[in-house]
Amino acid sequence: MSQAATLDRHPHARAVVGPVLEGRAEPSHAYLFYGPPGAGKAQAALELAAALLAEGASDPESVRDRVGREAHPDLTWVRPSGAHGIRIDDVEEPVVTAASRTPFEARRRVFVIEGAELLGDEAANRMLKTLEEPASFAHLVLLTSRPESVMATIRSRCLAVRFDTPADAEIAEALVARSVLPETAQACARLSLGDSGRALALATGEGPAMRQAAEEFARAALEAQFADAPWDALLEPASARGRRAEQEAAEAAAEEAELLPEKERRRAEREAEKAVKRVARRERTAALDESLRLAGLWFRDLACVAEGAGSLAYATDRLEALEAGAAGRGPAGLREAVALVDEARASLRLNPDEGLQLQALAYRLSRVLS
Question: Would you say 26 and 20 are in contact if contact means Cβ atoms under 8 Å apart?
Fold first, then answer.
């Protein structure tokens, strides 16, 4: 499969980026990849980075492998730092300063900024000079699902590339191709809300267990049964995910640091220590947020069934359980439960006491559902 195959369902992105991936056109120094979550922006950014960094390499396959693991010294990937978005510390040294330094190994350096709409004013303003006067070897790729929220002066200096929302049927078809049962594939496609990456995560690996735990948390609130502390089933896998992410980030940082000169290696190790902790926190919070999102969608589906609109439910593979749970319940309390879950998701990003928050949410839910 060619690298441009990732762009097959994105005609605009293929027209702009495809020729670069195929070596038929020179790359822009700044791109803005925009579109809904799960549309393929990050994967396309990885493939673009791989193509640029493998250019002229003696072992291009090794380059592509390291880029895929984000372990190439000439690839920098910036993500939001927890609840604070993208801070000036996230871009000052890793992007603004580094973009003026010659590549370590490749002919180019690539900087990917994920969640560009979360660039704070100070960070965005520091980025402007890099975008206005880029070094000949520097290429920036900004990713966003909300282009209208990206600072206008940032947007105007980037080549915009649109990624389109995949249809549920398209997502389900891709899951079935990965040996997911059709019934499960359809449900996960709908539960993903158009995010193909999320659908895959729900249908495979730890996804089914996460769905089950979220549904059991919701049912415990419906029945006011908390003796087994159902929130623990959400907390434990989230903590494990955070620990795995921390270990993987530490290993990748160590591998990258080994390729640096000694002076820069010490600086990189200091920066990596802080960054690794942020990665762990971000991944743990993301896992809890996804569990709560699924619990909220369960209440939403129950409300649909209670109103006689079961065909609108997302969890199409759980209709019998939804019908049993909605029996004798009015939709008003279920809709209020959805709102409570949404509020908890928002506060989760700011309050580090996750266990206490989940426990409090469970009791609040039981009150509005009683």
Answer: yes
Q: Are 82 and 278 in contact (CB under 8 A)?
A: yes
Lowest mean pLDDT among 68-72, 218-222, 272-276: 272-276
Residue 355, pLDDT above cutoff 80: yes
Region 318-328: mean pLDDT is: 95
Partner residues linked to 366 by β-bridges: none
Cα–Cα distance for residue pair 142/31, rounded to 1 Å: 6
The three-state secondary structure class of 33 is strand
Q: Report d(CA 179, CA 65) in Å as an integer.
A: 25
| Number of other residues whose CB lies within 10 A of the CB of residue 356 | 11
Q: Cβ-count burial of 359 within 10 angstroms (0-12 exposed, 13-18 middle, 19+ buried)?
A: middle
H helix runs in the chain, sequence order: 11-21, 41-54, 60-68, 88-91, 121-132, 152-155, 168-176, 182-191, 196-203, 207-223, 232-257, 262-306, 319-326, 331-348, 354-369
CB 291 within 8 A of CB 210: yes
Residue 35 in contact with residue 7, Cβ under 8 Å? no
Own/partner pairs for 175-178, CB < 8 Å, 24+ apart? Answer: 175/199, 175/200, 175/203, 178/203, 178/204
Q: Tell me: the pLDDT tens digits for 113-138? A: 999 999 988 899 999 989 998 999 99
Name the pLDDT band for 2 (thresholds 50, 70, 90).
very low
3-state secondary structure 52-117: HHHCCCCCHHHHHHHHHCCCCCCEEEECCCHHHCECHHHHHHHHHHHHHCCCCCCCCEEEEEECHH
**Greatest C-alpha distance within the chain:** 69
Looking at residue 272, its pLDDT comes to: 74
- The chain-wide mean pLDDT, for the chain, equals 90
**Contact yes or no for 184/206 (Cβ under 8 A):** no
Q: How far is Cα 340 from Cα 346, in angstroms, rounded to an integer?
A: 10
Beta-bridge partners for 114 = 143
* Type of residue numbered 120: G
